[in-house]
C-alpha cells in the first residue's frame, strides 16, 4: 500500500476555491469555450489531445527515473468530449505522507496558475517498464480521479512505455480510463464470478482505451521545423566531411563521451556510444533530427541495447502464468469446498424429510422444517475469494503477451531487410 | 510579496554594485539543451499576459564537476513586469517554484535564465547579475529565443555574461555567445518524431501510429533516399552531373559502415534469430489463446 500513497491525488476538488468572479459577459467568450462553462453538460470523452510539451515532460520524467515507475499530474481542459492535455508536472516518488503529496500538488498548481498555465487537473500519468501496468493502486487512483471530477469522465491516465518508445523508435503513449462496469462493481467491492458474468466485465474491459492525438501549435511547428533543418547544419556537415573519415568517427565518439560527463549514469552513455558506432546504419547526426536516421526504428540491435528486455518480459510472463495457475487452484479449492457444503446441506434436508415422513407414518407429529436461515447458519459457505486479482493478472498477461507479439512483427521485417541488404551486397 | 526591484543606476542613481558579474567564476564552455526546455519556453510565451511582449524564466540543469559543460534539462517561468524605468521580477515565485522542482528532481540546479525576443532586454545585465549569484560558484548562462521570428527563423542563442570595464558593476556585462548543441535522447526523439508528424498533418493534429506503421514509413523514406542517391550516382557516372568530392566521401563513409559478414555465417545467424523470433511469437500467441479459453470458460461456469 506504500505505493498507493505515492500516487497522485485528484486536485480538482481542492482548487475550487471561492473566488469572486466578475459577472460573465457571454458574448466576450470565444465560441469554442462555451461548452466548458456549461457545468451540467456531460459528453462522453472520445479523444485525448496531447501537447508536445506535456509529452516531452512525461518522457523526460520517465526516462530519468527508469526503470522505476513514476507518476505525475496532467493539466489541461476538456471541451466537447475532447480532453486537451497541455502541461504536466512530475510528482516526487519519495514524498512521505499523503498530505505532503497533496500539498505539493496544490502548491505546484498554484504556481503554474500564476503564469497562466491551465490549472485544472485532467488526470495523471504513469510510466511503465515492461508494459504490465494493471495493478490495484493504478485502478484505485484512477477511480478516485474519476470520482473527483464532476461529470466523472474528464480524467484519464496516460501510460508511457519508456522501453518501447526508446527501442521501437515510436512513441508509446496510451490513454485509459475505467469503464462504467468496473466502477459499478468497485462501488460494492463485489468481484464474484456471478457478478462479473452479469456485468460482462472481462480483463479487457476494466479500462477503456481512448485514442491519443498529438496537437502541435503553430509556434511549436516552427520550432520543430527549426530542429529538423537548423540553419547552418549543412555547412557543419560539409565541414566535418572535409576531414579524414577515421578522425571523423573518433570525433563523434568523443562528442558522445563529452555528453557522458554530465549524463545521468555511466551505463546509459556507454550504451549511446556503442549504439552510435556499431550497427548497420551510419551514426546519427546529433545536431539535428531528420528522418529516418534519427529514431531507432531501423535499429537492428534493439536487443543489444537491452539484451535482457525480451527475456525479462518473458520471465514476467512466466511469473504471471504461475500466478494465474495459483489463482485458478485457489478458486477450484473454494469451489470444491462450496460444493461439499452444499452437498451436506442437501443430505441434511433429505434426512430430515425422511425422518419426518417416518414420524408421520408412525403417527407422531412432524418436526418443524428448518428455515433457510438456520440452514445457512449450520452450513457456512465460504464467500468466494475476490476475482479482481485474477482479473488483473489476466489483464497484465494479456498486455505483456500482446506487447511481445506486436514487437515481433517489426523485428521480422527488419531481419528480412538486413538479409536483403546483404543479398544485394554480394 | 518580495519583489526583486532592479533599477538601472543611470536612471535611478542607486549606489555601487552588489556583486561582480562573471568575474572569478568558472566560465562555461559547452552547453547542451534538452528539447523540452525549448517547448516550455514557447508555451510560456504563448501564455504570456496581454500587455507583455517578453517572458523570462529560470533554466535548470546539471553541470560537469568542473562547471565547464552544462546540460540544460528543464526550466520554469518567472513572472516579471517591465517598464521603461524599471523591472520587477517575482522572486517569491522563483523561490517557490525552485523549491518545488527540487523536491521532484533533486539533481537539477539553477544554471541560468531565458528570455524571449529578437534582441537582448536592456535589463539583461541586471538579471544576469542576479542569476550569476544564484548559479554560483559557476557562471550563469542566458538563452534568448527569438519568438518574433526575425528572418523567418526561430533563432536560439546561448550567451554567457562577462564583466567589462574597470570596476565591477552589475550593469557592465558583455554577453558572449556560447556554443550549444541540442540533445536528443532516444525516448525524446520518438516523441519529437510523433510531434513532427502531427506538425505536417493538416491542422497540426494527428493520431499516434503503431510501431509497424512507423517502421513502414521509415522504410519508405529510406528507400526514397536510396533512390535519390542512386539517381545522383548514376548521373555522375553518366557525366550529366558535376561530381562532388564531399558527397563522394560521405558515400564512401556510409558504405564502409555496412559490416562485412561471411554469407554462411550470416545465414546461420539469420536462421537462429528467425527461429527465436518465431518461437517467441508462437509461445505468446499460445498463451493468449489459453487465456481466452480460460476467460470464456469462466463465464460458462
Automatic annotation (TrEMBL), chain A:
CDD domains: MPN_eIF3h
Keyword Glycosyltransferase: no
Any one Gene Ontology molecular-function term assigned to this protein's record: metallopeptidase activity
Entry-linked Pfam families: eIF3h_C, JAB
PROSITE patterns linked to this entry: MPN
Region feature (Disordered): 353-372
UniProt-recorded name of the protein: MPN domain-containing protein
Organism: Coemansia javaensis
UniProtKB/TrEMBL annotation, chain B:
Residue ranges the record marks as coiled coil: 205-232
A biological process from GO: formation of cytoplasmic translation initiation complex
Principal subcellular localization: cytoplasm
CDD domains reported in the protein's UniProt record: MPN_eIF3f
Annotated ranges, domain MPN: 31-165
Protein keywords: Coiled coil, Cytoplasm, Initiation factor, Protein biosynthesis
GO cellular component terms given for this protein: eukaryotic 43S preinitiation complex; eukaryotic 48S preinitiation complex; eukaryotic translation initiation factor 3 complex, eIF3m
Subcellular location: Cytoplasm
Superkingdom, taxonomy of origin: Eukaryota
GO MF annotations in UniProt: metallopeptidase activity; translation initiation factor activity; translation initiation factor binding
Subunit structure: Component of the eukaryotic translation initiation factor 3 (eIF-3) complex.
UniProt similarity note: Belongs to the eIF-3 subunit F family.
Designated name of the protein: Eukaryotic translation initiation factor 3 subunit F
Organism taxonomic ancestry: Eukaryota, Fungi, Fungi incertae sedis, Zoopagomycota, Kickxellomycotina
